[in-house]
Every structure is written in structure tokens, then in C-alpha cells.
Amino acid sequence: MSGPLVVVGDALLDRDVEGTVDRICPDAPVPVLDERRATDRPGGAGLAALLAAAQGTEVVLVTALADDAAGARIAELLTRAGVRLCPLRLTGATPEKIRLRAGGQTLLRLDRGGAPSTPGEPPEAALEALASAGAILVSDYGRGLLRQPALRAAVADAGAPVVWDPHPKGPVAVPGARLTTPNLAELRQLTGDAGAGSPLSTATRAGHELRRRWRVGAVAVTMGADGAVLCHSGGTPLVVPPESDVDHVEDTCGAGDRFAATAATALAAGALTSEAVQEAVAAASAYVAAGGAAGLARGDREPATARRPAAAEELVARVRADGGTVVATGGCFDILHAGHVATLQAARRLGDCLVVCLNSDRSVRALKGPERPVNPEADRARLLTALDCVDAVLVFDEATPETALARLRPDVWVKGGDYAGDGAPELPEAELVRGWGGRVVTVPYLAGRSTTATITAARSRGARLVKGAR
Predict the structure, then answer these.
(1) Is the full-model pTM beyond 0.85?
(2) How many Cβ atoms sit within 10 Å of the Cβ of residue 389?
(3) Potential cystine with 161: which of 71, 267, 381, 451 (Cβ 3.0-4.6 Å)?
(4) Which ranges of 81-198 does DSSP label H, i.e. alpha helix?
(5) How many other C-beta atoms lie within 10 A of the C-beta of residue 466?
(6) What angle do the packed helices 255-268 and 273-289 form, to 10 degrees?
(7) pLDDT tens-digit profile of 18-70?
(8) Measured between alpha carbons, how far is 272 from 224 in angstroms, rounded to an integer?
């Protein structure tokens, strides 16, 4: 990215007051919260800036702050996180949102700051930042900042891609913005669409209507756990589901900010709009999986999208706790073919879950030579997990799966192919598996199917086609 990500929008101070409730107030039928701790964090556009900075992006925040304790606290938190501030002067009070919580639940939210007020003129530093931005994220929270004429004109005149995260009480996006990112509820309010039909049909219909009205490049409608729907110049929308389901949602606050900031950063790096939205869905899903804003306050890290050995180990622990049988198998699975599927299906029938120990790219190169694998480990893992018979994939770097097996300790270790039949050599990991009482078995395989044969046949046909073309 040639310049910083400049976030423009209304900043708030979010405060979570955590406590316990073990009695009722004697003079009113309400719970009494005994405060244990309070956590402050930037909210609104401040949270969007904070999330972007946490990913190593250079971030400038153009916002409005009053000369009060809340404004000073926001500035302190953001500066500490590496965000450069270009504040406009805000008359009145800096807005605050205070959530009173107990047992993981919000009991009451208290808002401070009063009605929105008009900010002063943007400082020269803010205008210079917008002119030199690598990307601009407009994070509108409906408190009037984006109605400031000079600031709005500077956003419209900037050469960087603009991502506009709208608010129903805010102004329309500047014409020519590359992408706008309402959620489905916001989209219905912005267009007046009654929402007839399925959520997908509403997102498609209203998304195209908003794109036409606002004269923006595309509209990405965020759909929570269902990912996003991208409405662009073509008539057919792009539906981008999350890569995996989030089992437990603790706090979704900030997921939209994470989405919009990721999309803006991707566009600045030269991504197509469709690619930026795919990156944004993956990032927002990882953010929610890590606990959302609550996880951010605890310092939890977002889960990686590639290797997740913990997922396999957690699965094994759950199955074992329920008295089930854990089955594992392994291999390179470079080009997935019918023989692989037959082996995996047979293995899954032997127990209550199947974990595939998958050779990493480095491991495959060491075993098969520099021209392998044909497909990278992330693609191979994704294909395997798409099969109903595979419950988890564990990627390992070593030449053999002994280390992975020692971590999983499966009840049954399965192989097919050349290890089946009389006179076949014993599996090198057989003694290890038997050491914890596990069983080693082979399963039938489909003769004549192999990755090497598939690659050889493809190369031979390619060579004949080239020769024929001459």
C-alpha cells in the first residue's frame, strides 16, 4: 500500500463494566451489579482504526473529539496502538457507550454525549492525509462528521479507493466510491425495502438499488454468519460464505468494522473488489471466532486460516470424552481421486471421527521431489475437509506422521493402497500406534488409481496435444 489507510468517521468511547449480580435492590425490583472491573476501548470509527492497526497497517484516523475526559481517553488508547490522529474540534461532549455486564450478558447500556453536533473545520493535516491515502475507509456512525462540507469534498476528490461503511442516519456515499458495506438491516433502512422474500433476494434486490442510487462501484451486504453478498455491475450477485462455521459467538461488536477495514486494505493492495470481499469475510469470521470486541480486550489472537492443529485435537478430545472411537489416516493427497475417496470412506466407517494427517508442502517435496506437490497444502486441506467422511485435517512437516500421531493417539490408524495384501511391508508407524493400545489396519482400495499415474497420464496427453498442434 503506497500510503496509509485513512479512516474517517465518528469515534466513541466504549466501556464494558463487568461485575456480579447476587441480590435485588431493596427499593426497586432491579438487579444490583457489583463492579469487578471496567474496560475501555475506542468505538465507532475508532474501533475500525484500532482493528486495522492491529494487523500491522499504517493508520490515520480523522474524527471529531471534544475537549473532555472521554475524548482524551480515546486519543490515549489509539495513540498507544500506533494510530495517528487528525481530530476535528467537537462542540459538546464526546459520545460514550457504557455496557453493564454480568455472566457474559449485557444488563443495560448507558449512552452519554447527547445529540450529534456539528464539528469544526478539518485541520490541514487531515486534508493532507486524505490526499496521500493508500485507501480511505469511511466509518459513519451517524453523528454528523461526514456532513462536514470540506471533509466530504476531500474524500470525494481523493484518488485512493474509498470504502463507505454507512449508517442509516448518515449521508449518502460520495459518488464513485469503490465499495459500500451495509449490513442487511441497514440496507433495508437505506433503501426502504420491506424485505419480501429470502434474505438473499432482499440483499440482491436492495443492494443493486443502493448501488444505482448512490452511484458507487459495488455494494457488499454483510449477512452475519452467512457471509456477504456482493452486488456489482453484473446482474448476478457474488455470494461469499465464511470458510468455516463459528461454533460459539461471544461478541460480534466490531465485525462490520473488521470487514470494511480489511476490504479497504485489500483494495489498496490492488485486489479486485470480489477478492477484497472474500478477504473481508474471512477476516471478520476470524475476528468473531476470537471473541470479537471482548476477545480484543483480552488480547486474544484471531485464529489462523491455514493450519489449525488445535481443531483436530479438540475434536479428538470431545469424541474420546464421549467414549467414541478415534480413527486417523494419512498421506499427501496431492491430486484427490476416487481411490483416495474410497479409502477415506472406508476409514470413517471404523469409528466416530476421522482425522487426516496431511503432509505439508515441505514434507511432500522431501518425499516426492521438487516438482511436487501439484496443489499447495491449503488447497489439499480444503478439499479433504469438504468431504463428509473427513472430520478434521492435521498438517505435519515431518517426513513421517509419527509426531502427529503421538499428539492425536488415535484408536485406529488406517492405510490403504500398497500396504494392503500378503507380503506387504509393515507400516513404519505401527509399533508407535500399538504402544498406546491402538490398532493398525488396512482397507480396500481401488486398483489402478494413483496420483503419480494421474500426473503421468496428464503430461502424456499434453505432450501429444502439443505435438499434434505442430
Answers:
(1) no
(2) 15
(3) 267
(4) 124-131, 149-157, 184-191
(5) 9
(6) 140
(7) 999 999 999 999 999 999 999 999 999 999 999 999 888 999 999 999 999 99
(8) 22
Distance CA 362, CA 464 (A): 32
Contact indicator for 44, 70 with CB cutoff of 8 Å: no
Concatenated DSSP letters of 171-224: PPPPTT-SEE--BHHHHHHHHT----S-HHHHHHHHHHHHHHHHT-S-EEEE-G
The residue type found at 117 is: S
What span, in angstroms and rounded, lies between the C-alpha atoms of 429 and 29?
A: 66
- Based on the residue annotation, tell me whether 397 is a catalytic residue of this protein: no
From the list 193, 257, 361, 391, the catalytic residue is: 257
Closest CA to 372 of 447, 450, 305, 444: 450
Cis peptide bond upstream of 241, omega within 30 = no
User: What angle (nearest 5°) sits at the alpha carbon of residue 73, between those of residues 72 and 75?
Assistant: 65
How far apart, in Å, are the Cα atoms of 270 and each of 135, 275, 290, 425? 11, 10, 28, 52
If you compute the radius of gyration of the chain from its CA atoms, what whole number of angstroms results? 27
Return all residues near 412 (Cβ < 8 A) that are at least 6 apart.
Answer: 325, 326, 327, 328, 347, 350, 351, 438, 439, 440, 441
Query: C-alpha angle with apex 296: 268 to 317, nearest 5 degrees?
Result: 110
Please give the grid coordinates belonging to residue 277. Answer: 470481499
Whether residue 280 contacts residue 262, with contact meaning beta carbons closer than 8 Å, is answered with yes
What's the CA gap between 341 and 343, in Å, rounded? 5
